């Protein structure tokens, strides 16, 4: 049994019910050619539209056996495969079925088109685009060229998490714990993986930073990233904006682009979608505008003299700025952002409370718990309102930082 066979057809058209196979190619898991044959159509005398795409002329197939005549060999090879792979597999399945092959009895593997879509935001792309993402070059719409490219693409897509593998290619920076890429192609692939650059882009997209460390939106550039990665699909980026370097979660940077670099799924509230659709986008977690403390890495290079460095910080209530930006600012100063109050909490940042939720006294459960822990002597939690917190951030911001000596 052959471990794997990659299959591709070139045809007179797209309809299996009326069109015919003009070329069939197969390679095994090592790229060895198992079959590459042209096929004389039995009914079509011309296929002008298809010819413009695949370049197969009547003269090229005039003296070749028909696909039906070659079908026994095709089926014998496919039946002996542990896994049959095809890009946009339903196309090949449809034509095989139209020629009477029991396609459900073959052992079909993952469709590389679907794998690519799942790993890069949900949209299906042509073989040329998907292969080009990995730097795979080939002459498209020749069946043999297509199967060789599909095999390389399949190997890339099944070799492990794409983001992690891409980040492994970087080289260490002078900034502690960070890496960078040495060529623009790697940067472009990295930004596309994070949804910060359109798949069709030839050069990196101009990004914008609009967080606490800027009075107005500033052009910014990703100059590095923390390694090891935050997760298989998320990263902490080192950006340059307004002459300073900042660490920021890729999700928050993506939100700052005003939707231009975000996936279509983010434009609709996930609450309004059916449950089955909520998981359709790997970026849907950011559509809810939630702060995920696990996505914030304390900046190890922050000034240890600032009061938040190495401290556990919790937020409660509504702030005049997005919670994500407020939390990211704390992490930038070296704080550990937590979701709940405990004995280990050092700071609780208290925003505006909704009376309908917290009652007439206006204290959230987090605030009440902090007060109780302080009163019992179990903790020493400093409570700051939003104004006090923003003043603290501004005090330690760049050139405005006070001399701590």
Output the keywords:
single chain; alpha/beta; four-stranded mixed β-sheet; 15 helices; 14 strands; 17% strand; elongated
SSE string? EEEHHHEHHHHHEEHEEEEHHEHEEHHEH
**CA gyration radius, whole angstroms:** 28 Å
Which structural class fits the helix and strand makeup? alpha/beta
Which regions are unreliable across 5 or more consecutive residues at pLDDT < 50?
Answer: 259-291, 355-360, 399-405
Number of helices: 15
The geometry reads as elongated
Please report which band the strand proportion falls in: under 5%, 5-15%, 15-25%, 25-35%, 35-45% or over 45%: 15-25%
Largest sheet: 6 strands, antiparallel
Count of individual beta strands: 14
Mean pLDDT: 85
State the separation between the terminal residues, measured CA to CA: 74 Å
Helix content: 25-40%
Walk me through this protein's architecture.
The protein is α/β, with parallel strands linked by helices and 405 residues long. Helix content is 31%, strand content 17%. The strands form three sheets. Strands 5, 6, 7, 8, 9 and 10 form a six-stranded antiparallel beta sheet that branches. The protein has a four-stranded mixed beta sheet with strand order 3-2-1-4, with helices on both faces. Strands 12-11-13-14 form a four-stranded parallel beta sheet, sandwiched between helices.
